[in-house]
Amino acid sequence: MQTATPNSPITFGDLPIGKFVRRLTILSAMGLFLDGYDLTIISVALLFIKPQFHPAPYLLGLVGAAALGGMFVGSLVLGNLSDRFGRRTMYLFDLLFFVVFAILSALSQNMIELIIFRFFLGIGIGADYPISSALTAEFSPTKRRGMLLVTTIAFWQVGAVAAYAASLLMLHLGPEAWRWMLASGAIPALVVMWLRRTIPESPRWLAAAGRKEEGDKIAQAVAREQGVTLKADTVQTSAPAKLASFRRLFEPDLIRLTIFAAGCWFLFDVGDYGTIVFFPTIFKMMAGSTLESSVLASGAIAAIAFVGIAIDWLIVDKIGRKIPQAVGFLGLGLIFIAMALIKPAFAIFLLLFLIMYIFQQGPGQMTYVFPGEVFPTSVRATGHGFSTAFSRLGGLLGVFVFPIMLAKFGLSSGLLLFGVCALGGFILTVWLAPEPKGTPLADV
């Protein structure tokens, strides 16, 4: 990366990783943390919700899927609005949905209330995906952009591990423990909302919106905070003045990227959310397991993911995004299918899941990274929001269908479905994936 001093002006794409970039990355990552926390802790809460409400399998699936449905709406609608009206306002307030409806979910008196409240909670989480990704990508230095976006999505896994740790502390609170679990995420969400007020509007978005002078002023102010000087007229964008049309995603120059970004993320989330939400339930079904051992085994799988994340973090700006995603999809598909065919015992099943979760991090990180880079500034949040929304349909399929398949056909049928989807993601990646490594956003 270019070394900069106040006497050697640099471009906005060479902004160093100083206090501002680190603060923005962490505050953006906390939105993903809350998603990982909430969608993981519901998997433990279900162990208490089932004996209290005795729901039919389809209601159990709807509880797991409700937040994903809300994420579909939030990412699609609010992602597009952030392209139309700016990133900052919704970046500050989208988590308010999470705070309010996390508390209301904990106060639910029946399954219908729980499903409704978790749907609205999901709207806030879904909105944060495209907004946080766009802001992080648009402030990131070109040569370290992949690492910073991987850091952002990696916090999903931090949230998942935190959820398992928190749920272990709350397991012995009695039959109402699930209420405390679901409410607990409101506290970090409030803190993050307060801290995000220090983040300015994206200079790249301002330039794309025809407010280039305002964008240059913000870019220069951020550079001064970082201790560097920017060249004049440094914020470049290839975007047209008209912003945020969904139709733009399907024009000839972007349609392959839209199919790739949305399709791969959809195929990944079928198996990802299908397993995450029901990990404790799956392990509880196996001979010799207990409530605590099921949660501990699920937590071990979430923790091993950091091995795969560390690998991605180290290589994403060296070998690129395409290879980690393709290799991860291939390993994921083969292991899912192997588990379905050999029907292993508890210990072998856990070992295979641990290995699989290392492979899982390739597509787990890159399906988030790609949409933040490959779409132009004018529709970056719209493109990421559309990809996120489409991925939530995959998550809905996995979460809603899996418990029904589990009840009617057994575990192997669900694992086969997840394996086939992962192999489909491998094919789509090899066929359509570009390689944005080292390319300025204006040129991607």
Report on the architecture of this protein.
This protein has 444 residues and is mainly alpha-helical. It has one domain: Growth Hormone, Chain: A (Up-down Bundle). It has 17 helices and no strands. The protein has helices at 19-53, 57-85, 88-93, 95-106, 111-139, 145-170, 177-183, 186-195, 203-208, 212-226, 255-276, 279-284, 291-315, 322-342, 346-374, 380-409, 411-432.
Mean pLDDT: 85
CATH topology: Growth Hormone, Chain: A
**Share in helix:** over 70%
Estimated share of beta-strand residues? under 5%
Low-confidence stretches: 1-6
| Counted beta strands | 0
Shape: globular
Give me the Rg, rounded. 21 Å
Main sheet overview? none
How many domains make up the coordinates? 1
Count of individual helical segments? 17
CATH homology-level superfamily: MFS general substrate transporter like domains
Question: What is the CATH architecture annotation?
Answer: Up-down Bundle
Listing every helix as H and every strand as E from the N terminus to the C terminus, the arrangement reads HHHHHHHHHHHHHHHHH
CATH class: Mainly Alpha
Helical/strand content category: mainly alpha
Distance between the amino and carboxyl termini: 18 Å
